[in-house]
Amino acid sequence: MKASRSTQLFWIAGAILIILYALIPVFWIVSLSFKAGDDITNKQFLPTVWSWENYKTVFASDLFTTALRNSVGMSIIATTISVILATLAAYAISRLEFPGKRLVLGVALAITVFPVIAIATPLFNLWRTIGLYDTWLGLIIPYLSYSLPLSVYVLSAFFREIPWEMEQAAQVDGATAWQAFRRVIVPLAAPGVFTAAILTFFAVWNDFVFGITLTSSEAARPVPAALAFFQGASQFSQPTAPIAAAAVVVTIPVVILVLLFQRKIVAGLTNGAVKG
Amino acid sequence: MSTTTPAAPTTKAAATKTTHRRVRLTDRARKERNLGWMLAGPAFFVMVAVTGYPILNAIWLSMFDYRLTDPGAKSFVGLGNYATILTDGLFWRQFGVTVIITVVTVAVELVLGFALAMVMHRALYLRTALRTAILVPYGIITVVSSYAWAYAFSSTYGFVNPTFGLGEFDWFGGTWSALFTVCVAEIWKTTPFMSLLLLAGLAQIPDDYLEAAKVDGAKAWQRVKRVILPNMKAAIMVALLFRTLDAFRIFDSVFIMTAGAQNTETLSFLAYRQTISRVMIGLGSAVSVILAILVVLIAVMFVKVFRTDLSQQRGDRK
Fold it and tell me: Which stretches are transmembrane (chain A) (predicted)?
């Protein structure tokens, strides 16, 4: 449809409004994080003096730096394992005939439907009995099971669009099913796998429920959970400004991933949901 | 197959050849089966082991009067916990709060998400900027966005009150205003996801349909109502399903923004508080099970409506 100049202006105005809608709350927390001392209660959008003070406070606090290390470590490990397992499963689902295929998909769907909190509380009991409570492994395991369905769906959608014939051609040329998978499908599937990895990372990085229910100390507590238990410099000062600074720090990876891979993320989200 | 064997040598040879091929085929199929399970097995195992056991365990524990701090007094009460919960006014109030949050946020998100999707679909300029900006709320940690909104509405730190001339209004002092802030935070964070799903549906409508409607003199809103909406029903249903299930489980933002104060507790929050804070394992498990059943019911309802809707649509087209 060829749009006239005035309708195009209308859509541009809409686009600018949406960009403001999406970014104003983010700018607000950034601005809050630069307000030092009493400036925090100035009730204005911007600080009167921009200061790094809150960032210094946050990085000087063990509570935050350990939580950040936990979050980064556990997210990377969980994302890696989840994407590897999901890639294998999605390949099988989209390419192979085997009994129980629908069962795998059904279980994946059931998990996405099941409330996280309903899993977290029984896991709390179980983990305490078997000693996984308050450990990295104790969080990585539920992260895996909760991120697997998403990556399996996203990846199956991607794999379905990879040309079948290439794989068959490789098999005709004497490659085994495994070789066909490794040499032909993997290079074609790499972009999809990458997208699934980003979405999985977002999901794991965002976790709060497991973070607060399955940890009790700094040993494994990830940043979102740590933020909820954050204290100010002294026990009596409100931790608002440091929380804002910490919040900005954990938002940076998200913004970087979005800036670099927005096209892939959009494709992954829409493919997985509508076609999957 | 055995009936074909007592035949001439030539056919016999042919027959063995086919059986041979058949054996190889089933062999191949068997290999494919094995490979299928080898590849899908680990993911399946992780999903079932980590969720299957806790679900069964929750159902089992929900039938006990069991307090962690007093394990000696653990006793079987059957469906007693369920009776306790379902006859408690508190549960129903929290159910109501959860339903209100779900209905309000999903309804607003649908309208807003549709507007966003339209703009993303039509805008020729700022496309990349638009998609990048919209992914920030999607990717941001819920706890972070909850803090951002809680501080924005706060009467001590926030810019909302001065901006709208509301003086010292305490948003978190009353049930409705507190719920309003929670809904705003939820809507802000999750509308982008909704709009991307709707955008995918929008992109599948052929431009010819809209051209034809325009030529026939349909006004903008008529085109939306008569051409666009009916043609993206599937996308709308998927988006609604995903978001409704998600909204019904709302937890993070309530925890951060109100901590359940002023009667803003939701069902997820109740389950958390019973088990983790009050260590009433039995009662908490029962709440979890009820929550899960409700979510499954919602999903089943959606799928039912979805099916009849799609078949009706197909009927219309014929």
Answer: 9-30, 72-91, 103-124, 136-159, 180-205, 243-261
Tokens 């954050």 belong to which residue? A230
Tell me if A76 sits within 8 A of A82, measured CB to CB. Answer: no
The total domain count for chain A is: 1
Nearest CA to A145 among A102, A186, A116? A116
pLDDT at B47 over 60: yes
- CA-closest candidate to residue B240, choices B200, B195, B203, B204: B195
Look at residue A7 and tell me if it is in a domain. Answer: no
Residues 6 or more apart in contact with residue B36 via CB below 8 angstroms = A92, A96, A97, A98, A101
Q: Is A19 on the interface with B (CB under 8 A)?
A: yes
What pTM value is reported for the model?
A: 0.84
Q: Identify all chain A residues contacting B33, using CB atoms and an 8 Å cutoff.
A: 96-99
What is the extent of the structural domain holding A108? 58-275
pLDDT at B301 over 60: yes
- What is the ipTM, given to two decimal places? 0.86
Residue ranges of domains in chain B: 2-61, 83-317
Residue A48 covered by a domain: no
Q: Residue A11: inside a domain, yes or no?
A: no
- Give the tens place of pLDDT for each residue, B90-118: 889 989 999 999 999 999 999 999 999 98
Query: Does A15 lie at the interface with B, CB-CB under 8 angstroms?
Result: yes
Residue B125 DSSP SS3: coil
Question: A 53-72 residues with CB below 8 A of B?
Answer: none
Residue A28, in any domain of the structure: no
How far does the CA of residue A176 sit from the closest CA of chain B (Å)?
11
Question: Does A276 score more than 50 pLDDT?
Answer: no
The verdict on B302 touching A (C-beta cutoff 8 Å) is: no
CATH label of the domain that carries residue A168: 1.10.3720.10
List the single residue in A111, A122, A224 with the smallest CB-CB distance to B285. Answer: A122
CA distance B265 to chain A (A): 14
pLDDT digits 0-9 by tens, B141-185: 999 999 999 989 888 888 888 888 888 888 888 889 899 999 999
Contacts with A178 (C-beta within 8 Å, 6 or more apart), sequence order? B35
Nearest to B130 by CA among A171, A22, A133: A22
Class of domain B83-317: mainly alpha
Q: Copy the structure tokens of residue A274.
A: 């509508």
CA nearest A29 in B: which residue? B148
What's the mean pLDDT in B218-236?
83
